[in-house]
Design brief:
Helix content is 2%, strand content 49%. The protein has one helix at residues 239-244, and strands at residues 10-15, 22-28, 36-39, 42-48, 57-65, 87-96, 106-116, 125-135, 140-145, 152-159, 167-173, 178-184, 194-200, 203-205, 212-214, 216-217, 222-231, 234-237, 247-252, 264-267, 275-280. Strands 3, 4, 6, 7, 8, 9, 13, 16 and 19 form a nine-stranded mixed beta sheet that branches. Strands 5, 10, 11, 12, 17, 18, 20 and 21 form an eight-stranded antiparallel beta sheet that branches. Strands 1-2 form a two-stranded antiparallel ribbon. Residues 30-34 have low confidence and may be disordered.
């Protein structure tokens, strides 16, 4: 579930010892306390281990309660390709290798709440799914659990200590004592450096036209995510990178930039327990 955004990047040029030619070019997005980004579909935080996100982040761990979703008054939540769409709320965490890039690799796991109605917005059904996904991989995504609203969930993504292209993804429904897992081998991401903790309205690709759209955002109250990330061999509450300013605050807006209405607001600060809360505003 990759987002589209408009942000600035810093290029760092390395030269040979004689200063005659460029030997390496690195691209970074500086992460600091004042950085706020906007997109059509992501809301939450992305955390790194340092200001240039060059330190490996080898594990992301999140706990949250599945939010109860309902039909917003301004959408029928009817699936009709190219004109109207179901309403969704996905909650997840993951590992990425190049924060803010449209070409980012991503391993992730979480839940999705779905409202599906008829063309008049009536006869609605509500369903919930637990899933994992590997972006830019043949594994794709997989729906592997059927949680209920209010279930306590744990999602974790871990890079193998010895084989950097291997990842372990586990999603657990602690309320029902069910879990699912996936091992991804030979993945192109070998240097994960960012851990996103996100509420999302997922994207949709028309199978005929191959045009990308976004589902409508399902209505919900508020939901909290508590998280840890591992770097330099130690697990750290997400409050640690937050307090150091190694994060991006992401807003989901109607225009994908700061001029649009925020779908989810406010997004709270990260507390000392490593938790933050997001509250529905509009769909």
């Amino acid at each position: 579930m990759i987002r589209k955004e408009n942000i600035k990047r810093t290029l760092v040029f390395s030269m040979d010892s004689q200063l005659t030619k460029v030997t390496k070019i690195d691209e970074y997005v500086a992460i600091h306390a004042s950085l706020t980004t906007y997109s059509y579909n992501w809301s939450g935080y992305e955390f790194a281990a340092d200001s240039t996100h060059s330190t490996l982040v080898t594990d992301a761990y999140a706990t949250f309660t599945v939010p109860s979703v309902s039909k917003p008054t301004n959408h029928n939540c009817y699936q009709n390709p190219d004109s109207s769409f179901n309403c969704h709320l996905a909650v997840w965490d993951g590992l990425m290798d190049n924060w803010g890039s449209s070409s980012t690799h991503l391993v992730q796991a979480g839940t999705d709440g779905i409202i599906a109605c008829d063309s008049n917005g009536n006869n609605c059904s509500t369903s919930y799914s637990g899933w994992w996904e590997v972006i830019k991989s043949g594994a794709g995504s997989n729906s592997c659990l059927t949680p209920s609203a209010g279930d306590a969930m744990t999602a974790e993504e871990t890079q193998d200590h010895f084989t950097s292209s291997t990842y372990y993804i586990t999603l657990t429904d602690n309320t029902s004592s069910r879990s699912c897992s996936h091992t991804e081998t030979g993945y192109a991401m070998t240097s994960p450096s960012v851990a996103p903790f996100i509420d999302e309205r997922p994207g949709y690709v028309d199978p005929v036209t191959h045009v990308s759209y976004y589902y409508n955002l399902a209505k919900f109250g508020s939901n909290s995510i508590t998280g840890d990330i591992t770097y330099n061999g130690a697990a750290n509450s997400i409050y640690t990178p937050y307090s150091n300013g190694y994060y991006s605050l992401d807003y989901m807006t109607t225009t994908g930039d700061s001029s649009g209405t925020k779908f989810i607001t406010p997004i709270s600060a990260v507390g000392t327990t490593g938790s933050f809360t997001q509250t529905w505003n509009t769909s």
